[in-house]
Each structure stands twice: as C-alpha cells, then as structure tokens.
Fold this protein.
Amino acid sequence: MKKRLAIIGNGMAASRLLDELLRRNAGASFEISVFGEESRGAYNRILLGRVLSGGEPDEIALKPNDWYAQRGVVFHAGVRVAKVDPVARRLTTSAGELHPYDVCVFATGSSPLVPRVGGLKSDDGSPRDGVHVFRTIDDCVAIRDRARPGSSAVVVGGGLLGLEAAKALCDLGLHVTVLHLEPVLMNAQLDKNGGDLLRRAIEKMGIFVRTGTSAEEVLGNGHVEAVKLRGGDVVPADLVVFACGIVPRVEVAKASGVPVNRAILVNDLLATQVPGVYAVGECAEHAGKVYGLVQPIWEQCAVLADVLTGANPRARYLGSKVYARLKVAGVEVASFGVTDAEFPSDEVVQVFEDRRGVYRKLVVRDGKLAGAMLVGCADAAPALVQMFDRDEPLPPNRLDVLATGNAPTTATEREVCNCNHVTESAVVGAIRDGCDTLPALCDATRAGTGCGSCRGQLISLLATHVTLASV
Ligand SMILES: Cc1cc2nc3c(=O)[nH]c(=O)nc-3n(C[C@H](O)[C@H](O)[C@H](O)COP(=O)(O)OP(=O)(O)OC[C@H]3O[C@@H](n4cnc5c(N)ncnc54)[C@H](O)[C@@H]3O)c2cc1C
C-alpha cells in the first residue's frame, strides 16, 4: 500500500522536492499531496522583479496548476495548514479539514521581516494603504496597481531584494528613494569600496539612496503620504515597500510540537526530532544555519528525495556554501564567503578600477578562496564560485582568476550554472542532442532555472554550437 506524503507549502523548495521525488519514481510508493497557502502553482520567486516591473505572472511559473494532477499529485491550492498532529499523523487546515499522512514535510519558507515602524496601520487597525512587502506575486500585483509613473516610492532596505524592488519601481517611472540602515549598501555581501561603487551605479539609474538611516514612521491620512526618517527628515511617498530581510515561517511547526530554534531543526537527513516529520528550504535550520538562497535548498531537496524514496539511503545533507548575485540590469554584483581578511595570515587581492566602476577582490586562506566580491563586472563569478565550492587551490598568480576566472582549475569541467551545478559540457551535449532554443536547453539541463544570471552565457553557447552543429 502507498504511503501518504504531505508537503506543507508550495514554494520553490516544494517544487524542487516534487521534481526530485518524481525523478526517483516516488509516485509508485507515495500518494503525494501539496498544501499551498498561495493559490497559484509554484513559481520562481527569484524572478519576482520581472513581475514587479510589468511582466506577466505566467512568465515566472514553474508549475501551472494542472501540472500536479497530470502527475498524480494532489494540489490543495489556496489551503493553509494550521496544525500537525504528529501522534495521530494528521494535519488540520485552517478551514478545519483533517488530512491523514504517513510522512510530512514542512516547506513553509519565510515571511518578510517588517521592522517596528510607527504608522503601519490606519486608525481603524487595518494595514495602511500603500504599505507593501516584496515576497509573492500578489505583493507585486498590489504594488503595481498602486505604482503610477511620476508618483514616489520609498524602499526600506538596501540589500539584494530592496535594490531589485527599487530598480523595478524606477523602471515603472516612479521617483524612488532607498533607505538603508547601514552605511554600505548590500553590507552583508560587500565592503565599503564595493558598496560605494554599487551606490554610484544605483544612483546613476536615477534612484536616490540614503544610508545610515531608516524609516521611523509612515505618515498619512488613511493612505501613505510620506515617511519620517530617524533624525526627523520627511520623504514624501505614495508607496512604501519593506525589503529588510526574512523570518522563517515556523508558526505551524511550533504549534505542532516540532522543535524550532530560529527555524525548524533538522539533522543531516532533513528529519526533525518528530518521527515522520521533515523540513526543507528557508524554514529549516541545519547545523546552526538557515539558508535564504535556492542553491542550498535544492541540495537539501535532492537529499530528502533520496532519503524518502530509499533511492540512496546513505544520502546526507552536510551543509552548503552559498553565493549571491544581484539581478539588477546594468550593475553586476557577485559575492560569496568572507568579505575581508579575518586572520593575520589571510591574503587579500584587490583591483579597483575607479573610472570603469569595477572592483574585484579575493580573500585567500591557505591558498584557497575564502571569499570574493565582484562589482561592475562579474564575468569571473561562475568559475570563482566553482573553485570556492570545491575548495580548489588557487594558481600562484591570483590575478589570473580575478579578472576572468580563466585559470587552470583542477575541476575537469567548468560550471556554467552554479545554482544547479550544470557544466559547460552538459550544456553543449544538450545542444548537440537537439536543444536549439533557450527554453529547451533550460528544460533539459536545468541551467538558467535558478537566479537566471547564466542565461547570457547559455545564449552565447547556443549561438556558437547551434551554428557549428548546422555547418
Ligand atoms: C524578490 C526575491 C528575489 C530573490 N532572489 C534570489 C536570488 O537571486 N537567488 C537566490 O538563490 N534566492 C533568491 N531569493 C530567495 C528564494 O526565492 C528563496 O530562497 C526560496 O523561494 C525559498 O524557497 P522555500 O520554498 O523555502 O520558500 P517559499 O518559496 O517562500 O515558499 C514557501 C511557501 O509555503 C507557503 N506556506 C507557508 N506556510 C504555509 C502553511 N501553513 N500552509 C500552506 N502553505 C504555507 C507560502 O505561502 C509559500 O508559498 C529571492 C527571494 C525574493 C522574494
């Protein structure tokens, strides 16, 4: 008899877990149900900026609503799970429906962090009109409905998400001001040099940046009219978008007696302490780490699928090395690992090209990469990420890798897509097998289906090899 597998949440982790399960023929041993509070099929949350700047939600769909039934998966669209009873092995939805399960996976992701700011609610207690977060398609549609060319927006948060939101709003014709609490933009990924260059590039796009300050109060009569800053300045605004970070969604796990620290605690099998209950994605905490990027989440999903299906009972998740890339057209930023020397023996190699607006820096520890940041030109990013990921020794002349990443590497194959670890030879192989368009190539190899920053390279590989194949 088939076991009942219930997945709570239908975001990027759930979507990837389904793919990994079906690849391992899980349909033969499981009846799979997915409970998604959002009523849409899964979509690529990473690409929300496209929807914010005017694209159609379908452009970023990962799984249309009919995908599930076609593969024998039951999708409870728009259904929130309120509680899990791990003893009775039964979950309850917020509408009070009961669903028995044998195995349950939390994939509940995160909520946007909204700092304590006055005036977020109107006098009657309802959320103030014009205050938004940037996490879902519905958020983007709501922001767009309010964004009129010539109106003004304040984006609170000058990290990856805040800058993406600011650029999208600027492209819609709004007057945009970004507020960032720290003196340096993207301070989690960049040092002062990098942050200063980034600021220059962002301001050149027409976005105003105010660092070292934040919103103290949202002002307005019913709807937003301005934001009062720490220090007293007032910035007029028709729209406020909070992009200040994320908080793992652990409320259901907590209410169900599943142990939680910052997020749901899991071991190397992605299992919680509660038998039959697992967690993946941004809601999971492994070895003290909670990841907020997809590449580690996808690594978790592959392991969990191996564990659940028994395809590889010895599969273990041992943590991931992460890297971040800003997806704002016109300014390239990539960063991973440490941003500065931490020990006296750490070696720092940096090249600052002020006129070109390019800054590249490596932090080297024991002859290997401990971190890197690239601002203004990130051509070397895929190769550097690969070296970092594989703990490869650097060549004696560090500048060989700093500029292009084209240094001799011990890896036999160069990665094109770091999110999915897809090598150049796999891409070229797929082109030779007949994938002669970008969608076909992405479908066949998974390259380009994460943050999408390798799509340019995929297009140039297509240009080279499709032509060669047809000669
Ligand atoms: C604008 C933006 C840009 C980003 N850019 C990048 C990037 O460039 N690179 C990168 O690697 N990552 C990026 N990320 C982060 C990436 O999107 C997340 O790491 C990823 O989506 C996490 O997947 P998840 O499934 O854990 O959570 P989510 O994708 O948030 O999915 C969780 C789902 O569970 C649902 N849910 C929660 N609780 C319940 C419940 N009780 N019952 C039913 N459903 C529930 C939620 O509604 C949600 O749909 C970005 C995120 C955003 C918002």
In short: The mean pLDDT is 93. Residues 294-309 form the longest helix (16 residues).
